[in-house]
C-alpha cells in the first residue's frame, strides 16, 4: 500500500552534499554504534516487534513483548500460543486485535513458505500481513545489515526540516535519502535520524540549543531564537 502524504513543514532547499556529510559525521561521532530501541531475540522477534510498533511507542512494545517472546520466539511457538493468547499479551498496544491477527498470519506464512525463517528480500517481507515498506526496511537493516533507511514520522520530520530531502510522503523521503546519503553512513542512517527526531528534533518544540547540527540545519523555526525553555518543557 503506498505511503500516505503527511504534512510537510516549509523548509529551504536541501543541504548540499558537503553539509550532508558533515551532518552524518557529527551524528556518528555522537553515537558511533546506534541500535534499535526495540528489544528482540532474533530476526523473527524483530519482525514481530516492528509490526507491533505501528502507531505505538517502542517502550510500550517492549513491555508487552518481553513476556511474549519469553515463551514464543519462533513462528511455530507463536502459532502454538494462538491468537487469543497473543492478543492478551499485546492488549496494552494500540490496534492489538488487528496486530494479533497479523502476527499469527505472518507466522503461518513464514512456516509454510520459508521454513520458519524470516526472508531477507524486501518483496517477500512486504507481502506478509502487517508488513509494509517501512517494516520491511527496518528488518532488512537491523537483522540483515542491508543499507535501507526506513522512514517513520520522526525521520520524515527531520529530513524535511533540515532538510536532507524534502518530499510529501514517507516512501519518497526514503527513496530520496537512500539516493543521497553516502554509503559509509547509509547502514546506520535510520538509527541516527530516528534517535535525533525522538530526542532532539522533537515535533512540538525541537531542542535546537542542544542540537549537534543546529548550525547546519536550515529549519526556519529554530527554538534558539525563542525565549528560554522552562523546566517543564
Outline the low-pLDDT stretches: 225-233
Which fold name corresponds to the CATH topology of the largest domain? Endonuclease III, domain 1
Provide the number of structural domains.
Answer: 2
Kindly report how far apart the N and C termini lie.
37 Å
In CATH terms, the superfamily of the largest domain is: Hypothetical protein, domain 2
> How many strands in all?
0
Task: Supply database-style keywords.
disordered C terminus, Endonuclease III, domain 1, Endonuclease Iii, domain 2, 2 domains, 0% strand, mainly alpha, 233 residues, 11 helices
Write the layout of secondary structure elements.
Blueprint: H1 17-30, H2 43-52, H3 58-71, H4 75-81, H5 83-89, H6 96-114, H7 122-126, H8 133-144, H9 153-161, H10 170-180, H11 183-199
Q: Would you give an account of this structure?
A:
- With 233 residues, the protein is mainly alpha-helical.
- The chain has two domains: 17-34 and 148-223, Helix-hairpin-Helix base-excision DNA repair enzymes (C-terminal) (Endonuclease Iii, domain 2, Orthogonal Bundle), CATH 1.10.1670; 43-144, Orthogonal Bundle (Endonuclease III, domain 1).
- The protein contains eleven helices and no strands.
- The longest helix is centred in the middle third of the chain and has 19 residues, at 96-114.
- The two termini are 37 Å apart.
Briefly characterize the structure.
This protein has 233 residues and is mainly alpha-helical. The chain is 54% helix and 0% strand. The longest helix has 19 residues.
Amino acid at each position: 500500500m503506498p505511503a500516505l502524504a503527511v504534512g510537510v513543514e516549509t523548509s529551504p532547499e536541501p543541504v548540499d552534499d558537503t553539509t550532508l556529510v558533515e551532518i552524518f559525521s557529527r551524528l556518528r561521532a555522537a553515537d558511533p554504534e546506534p541500535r534499535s530501541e526495540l528489544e528482540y531475540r532474533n530476526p523473527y522477534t524483530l519482525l514481530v516487534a516492528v509490526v507491533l510498533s505501528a502507531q505505538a511507542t517502542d517502550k510500550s512494545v517492549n513491555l508487552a513483548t518481553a513476556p511474549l517472546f519469553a515463551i514464543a520466539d519462533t513462528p511455530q511457538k507463536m502459532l502454538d500460543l494462538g491468537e487469543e493468547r497473543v492478543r492478551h499479551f499485546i492488549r496494552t498496544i494500540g490496534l492489538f486485535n488487528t496486530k494479533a491477527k497479523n502476527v499469527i498470519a505472518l507466522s503461518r506464512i513464514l512456516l509454510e513458505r520459508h521454513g520458519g525463517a524470516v526472508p531477507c528480500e524486501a518483496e517477500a517481507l512486504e507481502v506478509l500481513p502487517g508488513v509494509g515498506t517501512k517494516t520491511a526496511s527496518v528488518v532488512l537493516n537491523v537483522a540483515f545489515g542491508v543499507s535501507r533507511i526506513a522512514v517513520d514520522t520522526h525521520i520524515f520530520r527531520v529530513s524535511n526540516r533540515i532538510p536532507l530531502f524534502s518530499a510529501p510522503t514517507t516512501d519518497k523521503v526514503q527513496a530520496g535519502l537512500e539516493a543521497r546519503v553516502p554509503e559509509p553512513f547509509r547502514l546506520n542512517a535510520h538509527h541516527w535520524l530516528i534517535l535525533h527526531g525522538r530526542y532532539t528534533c522533537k515535533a512540538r518544540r525541537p531542542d535546537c540549543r542542544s542540537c549537534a547540527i543546529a548550525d547546519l540545519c536550515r529549519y526556519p523555526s529554530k527554538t534558539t531564537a525563542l525565549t528560554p525553555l522552562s523546566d517543564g518543557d
